[in-house]
Amino acid sequence: MLIMKPVVAIVGRPNVGKSTLFNRITRSRDALVDDFPGVTRDRHYADTMWNEKEFTLIDTGGFLLSDDDVFATEIRQHVEIAVDEADVVVLVLDGRSGLSPFDTDLADILRRSEKKVFYLINKVENNSQRHAMPEFYSLGVDKFYSVSAEHGIGISDFMDDLANALPHYDPDKDGNNSGGNQEQKEICIAVAGRPNVGKSSLINRLFGEDRLVVSEKAGTTRDAVELVVEHGGCRFRLIDTAGIRRKGKVKEKIEKFSIIKSLKSLDVCDVTLILIDASEGITDQDITIAGYARDRGCGALFLINKWDLLEQDEKDQKKFMNDLRMKAKFLSYAPAMTISALTGLRTHKIFSMVEKIYDEYSYRINTGLLNRIIEDALFRAEPSLHKGKRLKFYYSTQVAVKPPSIVCFVNYPDAVHFSYKRYLLNQIREMAELEYTPINLYFRERTGKIDFSSKTPNTTANIRYARKKERKNVKRQKERTEQQRRKRIREKDAQKY
């Protein structure tokens, strides 16, 4: 039986301090905070603990019964879902602006839900504000908690009572903490792109429900939202990010913070899904975002979204891909797919491709195999001389994964030309079958040459490499034989004349 952690939902009208309270309880800065209303639009989840009691906290958007805001209807739906999921609800009120009709409406809705509700009057930072609290008793509530989420005033007493009200939870019986799931592979995926290219729509499609607020208006997503999906025995952690515009077009402070959080998501992810709007073509900003993924060393997958919107005569996939490869040469290893988040076109292939990228991204090459690959590459094409002296490779080893990072010890590290480095990278990709991952190759100085003559273990990787090398040699021999045959024919034809 699967036992879930207790769930606490924070609700309230816009700009009462819900996200500030969320950050205070979780001891983080995960939720974006600003002075103007409507910053939070999606549901934010975070696991936290108080008095050794674990629970899941949900931050929600500002609740409005009117449709004055373009996102009001969808935010209301997300708030209602959060209340349904919660064991305990925290209604946050504003001690500065006083009671609002929206507070009364929301309190009535929570009463009908029959959930345990804590009423929190936020932004109470001095005694003069406490004297203005009696108006809140018109809600028909016996107990209020006066706090300041920003300064931490009154939070401890409130959290002690909240923790005592949570249902019993035993972590040892939680299916999520069982030994089998601890070994389950987890892949972190960040979805990045320009505003309004369909990032949230894609995550809703992959998640299987309308988990994120979606609109045709650019800039709908402001905060990085994490979701977990299990697919094919693998656990995927999806991060929806805010749209990244050109620096010169970013004016609002909240948008700057959103973009900073988006870029931080690329730092922690294993694979970045780079969304491109097919109806607008490949823009310079798309390539800039691809560059951010390259600079952070994560795996990458290009997704050409809205492919269904193109006219039939415009659906030249080969031409589109060639254009992409020409503009994003620095991500030549990143595969690309045409999809439609709206209709689901080819979206079912995304998880399997991401898993393939991750397997290569976290792959460790056998040291003996790696040295034979380098030795074979040196035999086929020697590096150029450095001041009349030969460049010697002594030893190579992989020092890290995610991405695979390799160090070659040579006598003159600075003398390795970038073109020869690219040649070695291509040889490693081909022989180690690392097609879809970035690879870091470094050169360090060391004395003493490696002895390649020692017998290496008969591992699967070594056998596969030996067979591949043998096939290449056979192919090369056939090509030489064919070239010699054609040369003899040309010589005979020349003798006739």
Automatic annotation (TrEMBL):
Chain positions recorded as GTP 2 binding sites: 193-200, 240-244, 305-308
Sequence ranges of Basic and acidic residues compositional bias: 479-497
Entry keywords, A to Z: GTP-binding, Nucleotide-binding, Repeat, Ribosome biogenesis
Membership in a protein family: Belongs to the TRAFAC class TrmE-Era-EngA-EngB-Septin-like GTPase superfamily. EngA (Der) GTPase family.
NCBIfam families: GTPase_EngA (TIGR03594), small_GTP (TIGR00231)
Pfam families: KH_dom-like, MMR_HSR1
Biased composition (Basic residues): 466-478
Example GO BP: ribosome biogenesis
Molecular function via GO: GTP binding; ribosome binding
Binding residues for GTP 1: 12-19, 59-63, 122-125
Organism the protein comes from: Desulfamplus magnetovallimortis
Region (Disordered): 466-497
Protein name: GTPase Der
Highest taxon of source: Bacteria
Keyword GTP-binding: yes
Organism phylogeny: Bacteria, Pseudomonadati, Thermodesulfobacteriota, Desulfobacteria, Desulfobacterales
Domain (EngA-type G) ranges: 6-170, 187-362
Quaternary assembly: Associates with the 50S ribosomal subunit.
Function (record text): GTPase that plays an essential role in the late steps of ribosome biogenesis.
